[in-house]
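Following the same procedure, sequence and fold were stored together, as reproduced here:

>
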Amino acid sequence: MGTQYGCIASFFEYMPPIVSLIIPCYNEEKTIRLLLDALLAQTYPLVKMEVVIADGLSTDGTRAEIARFQNEHPDLTLRVVDNPARIIPAGLNVAINASEGEIIVRMDAHSVPAPDYVARCVDALDAGLGENVGGVWVIRPGAEGWVAESIAAAAAHPLGVGDALYRHATQAQKVDTVPFGAFRRSLIEKIGLFDETLLANEDYEFNTRIRAAGGTIWLDPAIQSIYFARPTFGRLVKQYFNYGYWKWKMLQRYPKTLRWRQFLPPIFVLSLVFWTLLGLFFSSALVVLGLELLVYVTILFVAGLKIGQPALPLAIGAMHLAWGSGLLWSALKSFFTRK
């Protein structure tokens, strides 16, 4: 009898908190089912989970896929709310306001979390390791073919992403940011919702406010999710141009958040422009330009050969040039439009 009462007491002593998984999405017909199936397979009790999808009024079959999943799996609470603004931070805020869980886990429609993802996030929060906890991305190609494979390789390579530890960390540690964080609802009451004036870098800005308030961002490599990289160079360039563009907006508010890896791409772009323009008057400048490009491409080509991706220079080069150009364009616009 004593053992029985002890088990009952232990059960009531720790009741798993309700976890709300918030997901902004728009036209994710190809990947939304992969995510939902992964959430269904979580080791965390389904009765203690709810999924809130903020859909930006998708025009493809996203909503139909979600509806099919709901009909097939009514045991997982799932709600869809509209995100007419069609931007990620607005979608996150709409989903948060529609959710009820004590713990909020931010997910992405391009991701597939490991079965123990939610459970590990909750354990890390319960252990007091951080106010916002997350894990690493296992990057996968967004399509078939050498282009998508090279982009996925670049998105996980230190030459492409520098010290973005959530892409290649092997040890648990304090970090500046995590991509898909898990945090308690009380944190929102303390620092506020996601900044809807930023169309990118919203996670970094959110984590910056957490750190400014004395909180810790904790990354544990055991918390893993598959992330599908952009499938084409065109979409990759658009993605990284937006990253750079909105990073400048972040730096205007938080200049101390600039890291060395973010400083290099705009300097590289500026150097290419400088030597090219100077080359119009001095032929020796074109020689310097050629040497700079030769060294750059050689370094990337050698790195690509080491991992069996000879097309790596194309993907990383696209990332660097797009990110640097986006930041410089944003800075230039800010300079000429400031009052």
